[in-house]
């Protein structure tokens, strides 16, 4: 009996000691925050300033601007620095960066061959000159695709980095006596480059044609210009018709089409006085591409509005130089 009584005393003492502790714990849990609200949740960590800046940059479009620079004699200039270049977008200066060394950025070429009756007599020579051009211009990191311009655009050689495959595609083209869907083919080539070109490469459309348009079903000059600019393409044209072009109203119009596309994109349109000059023109295009600069900027205008934005490129410290570059780009609404 004495043992049982001892147990009761111990149990009583334990209850006396633990009761104040439990009461204190309940008081802490039920204590109001002062305004009757639940305790505030901890704030998430702030995004670092550099991450915020990167997020802005990623939502902005990198505007890529290939720039061809030559001296008074027409020779490529290779010593231009990014500090020499100024780019304005709609009159507002932009922060410009250099994207790689001059002429070292990979090139994606779409070579377009006119197979209509208007150029048939010179076709074999054009074909051989184009083969030589591809052999000289194509570097291991470059690629080329081949289109024919006829009644419908035809992709004769899909994108390839193989010079042998590119030459095979060129030699597979045969001249035909059919109308010319010139604008449709330019549009298809620009879109094809956009789908297949390697990221960060220069996109170049090279056309051998008199520019005579008489059969496009889907596209106009405006459409061709828009697709070239929207897909960051340079446009080079070689008209093999010869010096008599000024006597032909239709051919003059065709040359005007090609001049407009070349000027707007920063390329160049050649009108050959003699077909024999074709090889020299291809060499000139090769030299220009191998010395071409690639600049870029993130537009300071972050409005999410679709439309065309005009840009100007100049080198105020080097007034002796001649500069060709694209004259604008298209913004697509996201």
Question: If you had to describe this structure to a student in words, what would you say it looks like?
Answer:
- The chain is an alpha/beta fold and 334 residues long.
- It has 2 domains: 56-101 and 294-331, Immunoglobulin-like (Sandwich); 107-290, Rossmann fold (3-Layer(aba) Sandwich).
- Helix content is 36%, strand content 24%.
- The chain contains 8 helices and 14 strands.
- The chain has helices at 2-30, 49-59, 123-137, 163-171, 182-196, 221-230, 249-265, 278-290, and strands at 62-70, 86-89, 92-93, 97-98, 107-114, 143-149, 153-160, 202-208, 233-239, 268-271, 293-298, 307-314, 322-325, 328-331.
- The strands form 3 sheets. The chain has a 6-stranded mixed beta sheet, with helices on both faces. A 4-stranded antiparallel beta sheet has the order 4-11-1-13.
- α3 (123-137) packs parallel to α8 and α6 packs parallel to α7.
- The N and C termini lie far apart (89 Å).
As laid out across the biggest beta sheet, the strand order is 7-6-5-8-9-10
* Number of helices, counting only DSSP H or I runs of 4 residues or more: 8
Largest sheet: 6 strands, mixed
Classify the secondary structure makeup into a structural class.
alpha/beta
Specify the helix fraction band: 25-40%
Low-confidence stretches: 1-38, 44-59
Shape, principal axes of CA atoms: globular
The averaged pLDDT comes out at 84
Assigned CATH class of the largest domain: Alpha Beta
What CATH architecture of the largest domain would you give? 3-Layer(aba) Sandwich
Q: What distance lies between the first and last C-alpha atoms, to the nearest angstrom?
A: 89 Å
Secondary-structure element series: HHEEEEEHEEHHEHEHEHEEEE
